[in-house]
Structures are given as structure tokens and as C-alpha cells.
Specification:
2 domains, Methylamine Dehydrogenase, Chain H, 9 helices, 35% helix, Serine Threonine Protein Phosphatase 5, Tetratricopeptide repeat, 367 residues
């Protein structure tokens, strides 16, 4: 058989999902090409690229390593061929992944992978542009997202190859965008230190205690979370263990905020109340301190003053209230807004309070 016949067999096997057979057929095609004394970079590069993707589809560490070798050689032969850059990117993405992560990454970057059925046209002799420039395509992530992904470290070579492939052939942009999204999710999972599970429903907010605490022999920072199950939960950042579950609100808890010194935690709920929880120094657990009632709608936002003596709350009926954290009494009611208050914030010195609502913004003197 001549090289083209072996390639056709490989293409057929690949189309049937017989990736190991396809890889073997492409290997025989490369051998036939060598025996015939032909060293055409276009044909050889296409065969190597096809064998690369067949090996990646077959799976396994050895196959991934061999695919990376094929991708590099294909790119050496055809430096301006977009498919060669794409194969190198795919091989680099799959190489070095382990366990479940390998399957997740491979499935994402190879989802739209296909073989080259026709031999690519000869390369142009014009020099490569330096540095490479991203195409303006609606399919690709913005450059800042891609730079962020490159900063993760291990994905940088793959990202560079994906970018070059999309630059050389804009039709590859959708496949490149899908692969880059997969890599970004995988990089995010690698950076994830803890997964906190326990809430019965969505989690709406989380707040980290401002200072490290010692629990037994463990130095940690407390993490408070608020959820649709109307509960607050306290977690240990060192172990991921749930330390406490707090009940009291009658509806979804949507906002949390620690006081600057960390002695109080404020929570806001759709039940129209805010609550203050005191952190006990002896146990590093929270206990109820004050229930702040009076708003005519749901409490939408909250913020502590820099000294922690006051808490500002905003509500859906457009009011901002100031509370004493010492006894939970309302000190002042501000009614300048006519719709949902979306944010409140104290100035660093604590003398000014800013609030926002729809298109309106106000700044009030607190003293």
C-alpha cells in the first residue's frame, strides 16, 4: 500500500472512533512515505497531526506523550499551518493532567477535534509576524482573560499555541474559545483550596474574618456563609470543616459583614431584619446579640463604621438606617432614596456615609 491508502484507512478508522487503529494506520503511512524516499513536509506534517489527535483521543499518559512529540514535529515542518499550532495546543493541554482532571480537560479541548483529510497547501515564504497578534473574533475570550490564564503557569504554552492557531485561521476561533474556557476552568479548580458544602440551596454571600484565630493547635481564619436555607454557617479555613450552623432568620440570608475588629458579624435577610452575632473569644463561635427590626422591606445591604460602633443598613423601600452595635437601637433614619438601596459604605474616618440606589447616589454626614 502507498502512503495515501494507509492515510485513508486511518481517516476511516478515526471516523468510526477506532483511534488506536487510526494511529497505527497513520504510522504505516509515515513508514510508506519514508520508504518511498519522500520527505514532503506538507504530507508528513498532516500525517503527524492526524496521528497526534488519534493518540490524544485514544487516551493514556504514553499516548499523550507521543502525541506531544508528533505535534512538535508537525509544527517544525509546517510553522505557518494553523492546524499544527492547534495540535500542539491540544497535546500541551492534555499532557501532564492526572486523574479526573485529565478526563475533564481532554474532553473539553478535544470536543471539536477532527483530522485533516486533505493535505494543506504549501507554506508561504513571508516571515512570521512578531509578536503574534490576536484576531478580532467574537468567539475568542478577551485578551485580559487569556493573559490571566497564561499567568496560571502550566497552561501558558498551550494558550500561546491556541492564540497562534486562531490568528492563522479565524475559522478555528470557536474551537479555540471552547478549549481556552476548559483550560480556564481547570486552572481555577487547581487554585481552589477548599470546597465548603452544607447549605441546602444557593449560597448568596460569604465573609472572611479579618484576623487569624487559633482553634486548638490550628491557626485559621473563620469563613461565614449565608444561604437560601435562611441559615448562616461558620467554617474553618484550614480544614474546611463546618464549625457552626446559625438559625434565626425567617427567609433567605443575602448579605454578611464582619466588623473591623472581628467581634461582630452582621447578616441581612429577605425577612426584613438584620441580625448581629457576637464572636465569643473563648470558643471562637457566634452567639445572637441583637435583632434589628423596623425596615418596611427586605434588608438589601449593610456596612459597619470603621470603629465598629455603628451599622448602616439599606432596604428595598429606599431607606438607610443607622444602628448602635452596642444595644441594637436605631439611631437615625435616612429616607432620601425612592427605590431599593443597593449599597452603603462609610468613609475611612467614619464621618461620611455613602449610599446608592438605582441612578441616585447620596453622601451624608454621620456626625
Amino acid at each position: 500500500m502507498v502512503s495515501s491508502e494507509h492515510k485513508q484507512l486511518g481517516d476511516t478508522a478515526f471516523g468510526r472512533g477506532q483511534y488506536e487503529a487510526a494511529s497505527a494506520a497513520y504510522t504505516r503511512a509515515l513508514c510508506s512515505l519514508s520508504e518511498a524516499g519522500s520527505n514532503d513536509p506538507c504530507i508528513k506534517g498532516a500525517l503527524l497531526a492526524n496521528r497526534c489527535i488519534a493518540q490524544l483521543k485514544a487516551g493514556g499518559p504514553a499516548a499523550a506523550a507521543a502525541a506531544l512529540v508528533d505535534a512538535r514535529e508537525s509544527l517544525r515542518l509546517r510553522p505557518r499551518w494553523a492546524e499544527a499550532h492547534l495540535r500542539l495546543a491540544q497535546a500541551s493541554s492534555c499532557r501532564g493532567q492526572a486523574g479526573r482532571e485529565a478526563g475533564t480537560v481532554s474532553a473539553g479541548v478535544l470536543a471539536t477535534a477532527s483530522i485533516t483529510k486533505s493535505v494543506p497547501a504549501p507554506a508561504r515564504t513571508s516571515p512570521l509576524p512578531v509578536p503574534p497578534r490576536l484576531p478580532t473574533s467574537p468567539h475568542l475570550p478577551d485578551p485580559h482573560s487569556m493573559q490571566s490564564l497564561e499567568a496560571c503557569g502550566s497552561g501558558a504554552p498551550a494558550v500561546a499555541s491556541y492564540r497562534r492557531a486562531a490568528e492563522l485561521d479565524a475559522s478555528l476561533s470557536p474551537a479555540v474559545a471552547k478549549a481556552l474556557s476548559t483550560l480556564e476552568r481547570a486552572a481555577s479548580r487547581k487554585r481552589c483550596l477548599l470546597t465548603l458544602q452544607g447549605h441546602q440551596g444557593p449560597i448568596y454571600d460569604a465573609a472572611i474574618h479579618p484576623t487569624p484565630l487559633t482553634l486548638g493547635a490550628v491557626t485559621t481564619q473563620l469563613i461565614a456563609t449565608a444561604g437560601a436555607d435562611a441559615s448562616l454557617r461558620l467554617w474553618c479555613s484550614a480544614t474546611g470543616l463546618q464549625l457552626q450552623q446559625l438559625e434565626g432568620h425567617g427567609d433567605r440570608v443575602t448579605r454578611l459583614h464582619w466588623s473591623p475588629c472581628g467581634s461582630l458579624l452582621a447578616s441581612a435577610s429577605l425577612d426584613g431584619t438584620a441580625r448581629l452575632w457576637a464572636l465569643q473569644a473563648s470558643s471562637s463561635l457566634l452567639s445572637p446579640a441583637h435583632v434589628l427590626t423596623g425596615h418596611g422591606g427586605r434588608v438589601s445591604c449593610l456596612a459597619f463604621s470603621p470603629c465598629g460602633s455603628q451599622l448602616a443598613t439599606g432596604s428595598s423601600e429606599g431607606q438607610v438606617w443607622l444602628w448602635s452595635t452596642a444595644d441594637g437601637s436605631c439611631q437615625r433614619k435616612l429616607s432620601g432614596h425612592g427605590s431599593l438601596v443597593t449599597a452603603v459604605c462609610f468613609s475611612p474616618c467614619g464621618s461620611l456615609l455613602a449610599s446608592a440606589s438605582g441612578r441616585a447616589f447620596s453622601c451624608l454626614r454621620c456626625s
